[in-house]
Amino acid sequence: MNIRSRAPLRISFAGGGTDVPPFPEREGGLVLNATIARYAYGLLRPRRDRQVRIESADFGLAVNYNVDEAPIFDGRLDLVKAAIRRLGDPAAPGYDIFLHSNAPPGSGLGSSSTVMVTLVGLLREHHNLALTDYEIAQMSHHIERVDMGMLGGMQDQYAATFGGFNFIEFGADHVIVNPLRVSADVVNELEHNMLLCYTGATRRSDGVIEDQTARYEGGEAGTLAALRSQKQLATEMKNALVRRRPREFGDMLHEAWKQKKRMSPKISTGFIDEAYAAARRAGALGGKVTGAGGGGYMLFYCEFQKKHRVAEALTRMGGQVTEFAFEPEGLTTWSMSDG
After folding, report:
1. What whole-number distance in Å separates Cα of residue 325 and Cα of residue 226?
2. DSSP character for 143?
3. Closest CA to 332 of 203, 204, 160, 99
4. Cβ atoms within 10 Å, residue 27
5. Which domain holds residue 226?
6. With 0-12 CB in 10 A as exposed, 13-18 as middle and 19+ as buried, what is 233?
């Protein structure tokens, strides 16, 4: 039987950066995010020989090695190899793994971490591992941030695993995912009034995160204040959602973006600043980049009757504008025969 899995990508509304060490350990992080109906997909097909074959549609790469070989970390699908090294069984037969995502790497939608969650889901099912949702998210985070030393926060893995609207608390030794009961009317209103704009430039969040972390550890006043404001905004925007006040939520997106830009000068670019100003002139109440910054997707909340004007303004600037729907479910796995 073939095992299939998918996990949803996420958009972050407020609190991004407070999930990046060492801030959670020292002050505690708070993030408000939601998953959308765009996904990372995975397929695991058992083989009868001892070969492992990994193929990534996003990177256009494929690698092969024996299941009992130590994988070579050479920059070719190293994250996937690291997950197999940690969760695989060298005594078992081999398999083919195929991975694909709806968003390009560096999109700001948490695509790389979502692929990792999808992969851990495949391996859990294939090896009959007893992993809870929290353990899947923690394992995915550990492989990326500890085993492979990739800089970044913790929200993406938990969002992809749990799905839906979540208010997530990050501490020194714990993560608590608080699912939000956002009414269907509010969800519909958000989908009605929001849009995504791809800036056309993928970003490497490492430089942004390194700069933000250095400023925090150096005690830079602007970065400290901005990170603490992000926590407060995450709480206030969560309250606006559950109290059915989407207009307030849209207004606070603007403040969240102003505070996010204070965390590091690398978060915004000339194009992002120009696109944001154009969107505001056309009728957007607020917006922000959806990831660490420097490029990728921007999210906007608009007055609906002006939403088309915002889309036209961004398109004229070279942005790729799309609408989206929210996804209430997190990681999903299932089995299906080739027949």
Report:
1. 29
2. I
3. 160
4. 17
5. 184-322
6. buried
Beta pairing partners, 168: 31, 177
pLDDT digits (tens, 9 = 90+) for 102-154: 887 777 788 889 999 999 999 999 999 999 999 999 999 999 999 999 888 99
Residues 146 and 116 reside in one and the same domain = yes
Phi, psi of 120 (to 5 degrees): -60, -35
For tokens 């690698």, what's the residue?
A: 63
Q: Can 156 be counted among the known catalytic residues?
A: yes
- Quick: pLDDT tens for 289-323: 987 677 789 999 998 999 999 999 999 999 999 99
Q: Which two tokens stand for residue 113?
A: 């971490």
Domain assignment present for residue 218? The answer is yes
Task: Mark out the alpha helices in 111-173 (DSSP H runs).
Answer: 111-126, 133-141, 155-162
Task: Clarify whether residues 39 and 128 are in a common domain.
Answer: yes
Do 217 and 83 lie in a common domain? no
DSSP assignment of 297-313 equals: EEEEEE-HHHHHHHHHH
H/E segment holding residue 178: strand 175-179
Length of the chain, in residues: 339
> Do residues 285 and 241 both lie within one domain?
yes
Token duo for residue 1: 């039987």
Active-site entry in 74, 156, 251, 273: 156
CA distance 284 to 314: 11
pTM of the full structure:
0.94
Of 7, 16, 29, 14, the closest CA to residue 205 belongs to: 16
Residue 224 has φ and ψ, to the nearest 5°, of -60, -50
Distance (Å) of CA 132 to CA 19, 53, 168, 179 = 21, 27, 17, 16
Residues 235 and 258 reside in one and the same domain: yes
Final residue belonging to a domain, choices 180, 199, 216:
180
Single-letter amino acid, residue 234: A
Average pLDDT over residues 149-163: 94
